[in-house]
Specification:
Elements (H helix, E strand, L loop, with lengths): L3 E5 L4 H12 L3 E8 L7 H11 L3 E5 L4 H6 L12 H19 L3 E3 L13 H10 L6 E2 L11 H4 L17 H10 L16 H13 L5 H6 L4 E6 L2 E5 L3 H9 L5 E6 L6 E4 L4 H13 L11 E5 L2 E5 L14 E2 L1
Amino acid sequence: MERACVALISGGLDSALAAKLMLEQRLEVQGLFLSMSWGCCEKAKAQACAQQLGIPLMVLSVGDAYLDVLRAPKYGYGSGMNPCVDCRIYMFRIAKRYMEEVGAGFVVTGEVLGQRPMSQMRRPLDLIEAESGLEGLLLRPLSAQLLEPTLPELLGIVDRERLLNLAGRSRQEQFALAKAGGITEHSTPAGGCLLTDEHFAKKAKDLFANEEHPTTKDMELLTIGRHFRVAAHTKIIIGRNELENLMLEGHAQEGYTCLRPKFAGPAALVAGACAEEAKSLAVSLILRHTKEEKRPGGALSFWVNGSPWTTERQRRDVSQPASDAIKL
């Protein structure tokens, strides 16, 4: 077996420590960051962490195929729309393919026994290892002494005695190890991935309930603006600040229509069919989220996907559109 491994780097403390434990045993470490366009992990932190450790980092997108996992996870959801077990299986399958591509011998992860209730208890850890095709090749250095020896340990490539026996949710030992090892480039431990967030999960459930084939672009849009469902396959997103207005403009393309007012109001992105009714609702929502003193009198002028468009004010422009648009 090669004295080289692929270490999943999330930007968090645990994955950094796991990679460092391998470096301390003089193994070659190839970092791998699996990117989700909606930002579940911090790519910048992962890159800074890899640089501090002195290891190369490959960034790979999970791709639209990951959305099939979100739609119907074999092992169910956690507290929100987080398919933790299926997610880990999917990611470790990618890691396995990358391991084979670069000629590494095994995969390393910063998982800690008992830290996450759904995916990091003993039974799901074993299940994830088996279903990802990494039986004996998935090393969890922070909890290794509490788990069955992996193949690199049995072959003496990794010294099991120099691995750890951490368990549970406390990270006090990890913080102490990071301080002793000079590891400063890592994100602050938080409550979990974005799919566990109540508000994000609500929007994600709405997306999958109304779109047969959502894309990672649709998932990315869930992080931007205020969302209003106006029809089975159409929703309107209203920018909350200038940055979001610019981001919504950047998403304008076929199937996504951006209305950017020429007055001081928010942009609106119509995701889906943009018939006259949807465009009218978008105008209404723009005006409802524009300060009264900024609302122009008479005709309203917009840029629609970069082209000028003018419409006469309608009686419903600033009325509550609750019967037509459901706020998510």
